Amino acid sequence: MPKMFGFSRRRMKLGRLKGHLHDPFHGSRSPSRHTKRFNHPNGEDPVTTSVSGRADDLAWRCSSDTFDLNGRAFESSENWAVLSTEGDKPTPRFDHAAAIVGSKMVVFGGDSGHHLLDDTKILSLDKLTWDSVSPKVRPSSNGRSLKLHPCKGHCLVPWGKNVILVGGKSDPPYDKISVWTFNTETELWLHMEAKGDIPVSRSGHSVIRAGPVLILFGGEDAKGKKLHDLHMFDLKSSTWLPLNYK
């Protein structure tokens, strides 16, 4: 194997071994530790289902460490496990987006396989209970009340008590990329009136937040063209700026 970024295969192996032996979160442990496995009650291999609604017959073979979610105790295991949830569960979907704010996970939109979705679902991580949010949109500063379009391939980014929805393939489509915020306390959506050099509408892009700024990269436009542009969105002034890179 050729060297990648200056590391040989041997160094990569030693690095992984060292990481296992000196885990700062779980103390020293042996890399040869056997992986535990859950068994289905009827003796068959389980088929796991995520919030996306798509079944993956991974049989919980993916490794994971013991975790405590917001003070909630779960069974100690080194395997993926399906959490049993109650309430108004989301319908099966894909290309949706999710973000965690405090003890809540917000899920919006996606594709059912038949049509695009515009529902907002909230999972309480304390109670593992789903709630539906009525599609309420707060009027903008100019008095206009816009409707949040069904969409897929969008991004959700946490910001204080809010999540920010950026872009996505919508029905009907937008010409330029749209930015919305959802307040997890008031449960209201608000359209951000953006200005500046607003990027073209897209889906499948990536967005991260760095303080009061969003960084957007790439995606695919409405015609399926792959994009590799880089943009910055100032949350304080609601202004888009293009970023040049080499």
Features:
246 residues; mainly beta; Neuraminidase; five-stranded mixed sheet; 37% strand; disordered N terminus
What would your notes on this structure say?
With 246 residues, the chain is mainly beta. It has two domains: 35-83, no CATH class; 91-246, Kelch-type beta propeller (Neuraminidase). 5% of the residues lie in helices and 37% in strands. It contains one helix and 21 strands. The strands form six sheets. It has a five-stranded mixed beta sheet with strand order 5-9-8-7-6, with no helix packed on it. A five-stranded mixed beta sheet has the order 10-16-15-13-12, with no helix packed on it. The protein has a five-stranded mixed beta sheet with strand order 17-21-20-19-18, with no helix packed on it. It is globular, with a radius of gyration of 21 Å. The model is unreliable at 1-67 (pLDDT under 50).
Structural class: mainly beta
Low-confidence segments, ≥5 residues, pLDDT <50? 1-67
Largest sheet: 5 strands, mixed
CATH topology of the largest domain: Neuraminidase
Radius of gyration: 21 Å
Q: Which percent band covers the strand fraction?
A: 35-45%
Number of strands: 21
The helix count comes to: 1
Q: How confident is the prediction overall: mean pLDDT?
A: 78
- The residue fraction in helices comes out at under 10%
Supply the number of structural domains. 2
Brief summary of the model shown:
The chain has 246 residues and is mainly beta.
Helices, strands, pairings?
Elements: H1 9-21, E1 48-49, E2 55-56, E3 68-69, E4 72-73, E5 86-87, E6 97-101, E7 104-111, E8 116-124, E9 129-133, E10 137-138, E11 151-152, E12 155-159, E13 162-166, E14 169-170, E15 179-183, E16 188-191, E17 195-196, E18 206-210, E19 213-220, E20 226-234, E21 239-243
Parallel strand pairs: 5-9, 10-16, 17-21
Antiparallel strand pairs: 1-2, 3-4, 6-7, 7-8, 8-9, 11-14, 12-13, 13-15, 15-16, 18-19, 19-20, 20-21
